[in-house]
Design brief:
This protein has a seven-stranded parallel beta sheet with strand order 3-2-1-4-5-8-9, with helices on both faces. The protein has 22 helices and 15 strands. The longest helix is centred in the C-terminal third of the chain and has 18 residues. The C terminus is likely disordered. The protein is an alpha/beta fold. The protein starts with 5 loop residues before the first strand and ends in a 7-residue tail after the last helix. Helix 1 packs parallel to helix 12, helix 4 packs across helix 5 and helix 14 crosses helix 19. The radius of gyration is 22 Å and the shape is globular. It binds uridine-5'-diphosphate (UDP). The site of uridine-5'-diphosphate (UDP) has 18 residues, from helix 1, helix 16 and helix 17.
Length: 506
């Protein structure tokens, strides 16, 4: 008897992972896969507060479920919240996930789970799936190049590049002048552009260890799913495919959804209340005239950086839409210089969160000032919008390098923000025919990849076939867990984790 395939989708609880995971889930559902999308209880409450309960109601064959993230509410305002969340999910989420699978089986309303799709930073789910004999797929939320660099952290350590010898290496130019030219499929890249996680003198640095281990664990899943497309990262994908056979490139996920008119299938999941009026404001602006500024969900600016960006954007003389998240700067949007706010009346729209993909695709938007999170970078490519890049964390440096050098769609700002450079770079990317032409060409290539016959479209079909065949095969024999602490391997990491303020007893 034909069995309905059932994918349990388990994203890391941040916008950068939830968004692509939800897009992937919608695409699977649109192709006949039953989907259970797992939010943390905390994020469930946030989505309800931001968008109303209807956003999480689901529909036929698509349901939302929750598990606790293991973090105490008192720890949510901590400065190293992201580390605390990673520690908590890694240590505390396996049991609730196991219970959720059991609950789904018991209540019988859904077909048995036939595939677990987890995102990067959630590889405890791999252990749970192995124990239960459920096949897995991993969604790596970054670029192929960033997966490749993360896979090389161990070699960088062995070759003596990391950790840095002493603190002076952070600022003496070493990160810019040390060039790594031996990573398969990648052009020569400065040590600093490998990742923010190399900026450490501590061999047991949490981010370095955790991200290395998580990247490695993604490659242990039955298949790897990447939100990129073959033309965009041809060389590095070829190199990755030599190491891992089962890679499905299905990006840009938003373009694939657009192509199948699936975007509205279940609505979005925003953790912040979304401004709906900025689109009306954009409607009043000239095509290609607006500077759109958004640093994603995690970046934090100092007040001085905020002021430099503000005056730089003002100096362009152009209309602008700036998303100043409530926690973008300590003190929130109220910290914007009052003179800047007064001076730009009539040519600005300030808001705290927007529907970014919709904004990027608006004909009025002519430039994207971005932190180069992978989703933002990929969404900017898909929309054909030239970028001014200001990377600062994780893979953002690598994304920026590719955007500026490989794809020719952006200009990079110095780490130290200066208003003159902000204004100059915005002007340059908006006026450069070459940059605009490159952006238009990559947009067209993304569209081709997402159409029937295109690489991402066809890979999505193959992936669904693979998921279907998993549901037809007999249940896999339960496999031993990866060594209990393999994903937190190394005594150093255990030590770091035990010392951090989120230390928890198992
Ligand atoms: N995003 C959004 N509205 C905003 C800011 C961000 O919808 O005002 C979305 C954006 O479209 C992207 C995600 O949040 O899908 C941010 O992910 P990204 O990888 O760019 O950066 P991160 O937030 O992880 O640093």
């Amino acid at each position: 008897m034909a069995k309905t395939p059932h994918a349990l989708v388990v994203p890391y609880p941040g916008s950068g992972n939830i968004n692509p995971a939800l897009q992937l889930a919608k695409l699977l559902h649109g192709r006949g896969v039953y989907v259970t999308f797992v939010n943390t209880e905390h994020n469930h409450r946030r989505v309800v507060a931001a968008e109303g309960a209807a956003a999480l109601r689901g529909r036929e064959g698509f349901r939302f479920e929750t598990i606790p993230d293991g973090l105490l509410d008192a720890d949510r305002d901590a400065a190293d919240y992201d580390i605390g969340l990673s520690v908590a999910t890694s240590r505390r989420c396996a049991a609730p996930l196991r219970e959720l699978v059991a609950r789904l089986e018991l209540d019988g309303a859904a077909p048995p789970v036939t595939c677990m799709v987890f995102t990067a930073l959630m590889s405890f789910a791999l252990d749970v799936a192995r124990e239960l004999g459920i096949p897995t797929m991993a969604l790596w939320g970054g670029s192929a190049a960033s997966l490749m660099t993360h896979m090389r952290f161990r070699e960088l350590r062995e070759r003596g590049y990391i950790p840095l010898k002493d603190e002076s290496f952070l600022t003496n130019g070493h990160l810019d002048t040390t060039v790594i030219d031996w990573i398969p499929g990648m052009p020569p890249i400065s040590l600093g552009d490998i990742s923010s996680f190399v900026r450490t003198t501590d061999p047991d640095d949490f981010n370095l260890r955790f991200n290395e281990t998580e990247a490695n664990n993604c490659t242990k899943a039955g298949a790897l799913i990447l939100n990129t497309f073959d033309d965009l990262e041809a060389d590095v994908l070829a190199a990755l495919r030599r190491e891992y056979r089962r890679i499905y490139t299905v990006g840009p996920l938003g373009s694939l959804l657009d192509a199948g008119a699936g975007r509205a299938a279940t609505g979005g999941l925003s953790l912040w209340k979304q401004d709906t009026e900025c689109t009306a404001w954009l409607d009043t602006q000239e095509p290609g005239s607006v500077v759109y500024v958004n640093f994603g969900s995690l970046t934090v600016l100092t007040q001085a950086q905020l002021a430099e960006f503000a005056w730089g954007i003002a100096a362009t003389g152009r209309p602008f839409l700036w998303v100043v998240r409530e926690n973008l700067v300590p003190g929130g949007p109220a910290e914007l210089p009052a003179e800047f706010v007064a001076e730009t009346v009539g040519r600005r729209c300030l808001t705290t969160w927007c529907a970014q993909e919709q904004v990027l695709h608006h004909r009025a938007v002519g430039c994207f000032v971005t932190h180069n999170g992978w989703n933002s970078t990929c969404e900017g490519i898909a929309a054909g919008v030239p970028m001014v890049c200001w990377p600062g964390f994780a893979d953002q440096y690598t994304n920026c390098k590719y955007a500026c050098e490989a794809w020719g769609v952006g200009l990079r700002l110095d780490t130290e923000v200066r208003r003159e450079q902000v204004a100059g770079h915005v002007k340059q990317v908006m006026e450069s025919e070459e940059t605009r032409g490159n952006a238009a060409r990559w947009k067209a290539k993304a569209e081709v990849a997402a159409r029937p016959g295109g690489s991402s479209y066809e890979n999505m079909q193959s992936m669904v076939e693979a998921i279907n065949s998993l549901s037809l095969s007999s249940p896999t024999t339960p496999q031993p867990k990866l060594n209990d602490r393999e994903y937190l391997h190394g005594r150093g990491l255990e030590f770091t984790m035990n010392c951090c303020q989120f230390a928890m007893s198992d």
